[in-house]
């Protein structure tokens, strides 16, 4: 049977290529092409953009992106078994799909992409936050991408958009909201995937800000935020002791009460502290 785009249905593709999902690869596939087209639309107008997709698997989202008019899709997939299925999609959309069989954690995709670049991905859960933090913490800003449209476990998506004072507020919220505008744009139940994961999922769309909201060195910010939230129930003067002997003075200079806890400090405060700590 053929699907909306004239290619075989994803169920047939999976059967023909014997693509039994592997848990070790974080494989939970989307099989509904209406749904993948809807996710692709959350990324905005793709017609003038190159799209970077991590983990295309059998190609459900890839097909959504191409059907929605992406100028080019660069798909990076670690599992060699899906290469045949992806080659069929590439043949159906000449010159618009490039597939690389590589680990997204080690590949630098930049030389194969022409700006503007949007990243759209149903991320493997085991490397999702690691990739997100890398996209958010390059030394220079703005980054090579203009937007990220990413599927996460719902609990991770909620941490990304959390506000100060919330138990979910932490490293992901601060790094995400410091340099971008994350919004949850879709929620998906486990049954949307094959096999269904244990938890609900959500798509988060981020537009990169032209400049970070507040000045700070990304590495210093990441380090102090990680230390502060690692012991989130302690007062900052205790949880940040490892950052430097004079941390109490630095907190005061940044306008933060040393007796506050990490989750009480807004992004502006963390950036002020990063600038104090960077003074050396
Ligand atoms: N995009 C497909 C979809 O929506 O149906 C598959 C999504 S599945 C959640 C994650 C995909 O990422 C799998 O195809 C898996 O093989 C791939 N993957 C896992 N680790 C990877 C890595 N380090 N680099 C690139 N791809 C990876």
From TrEMBL:
The protein's superkingdom reads Bacteria
Cross-referenced InterPro entries: KsgA/Erm, rRNA_Ade_diMease-like_C, rRNA_Ade_Mease_Trfase_CS, rRNA_Ade_methylase_Trfase_N, rRNA_adenine_dimethylase, SAM-dependent_MTases_sf
Which EC numbers does the record give? 2.1.1.182
The broad enzyme category this protein falls into is transferase
* Cellular component GO terms held in the UniProt record: cytosol
| Keywords tagged on the record | Cytoplasm, Methyltransferase, RNA-binding, rRNA processing, S-adenosyl-L-methionine, Transferase
- State what this protein does: Specifically dimethylates two adjacent adenosines (A1518 and A1519) in the loop of a conserved hairpin near the 3'-end of 16S rRNA in the 30S particle. May play a critical role in biogenesis of 30S subunits.
Q: What is this protein called?
A: Ribosomal RNA small subunit methyltransferase A
UniProt source species: Celeribacter marinus
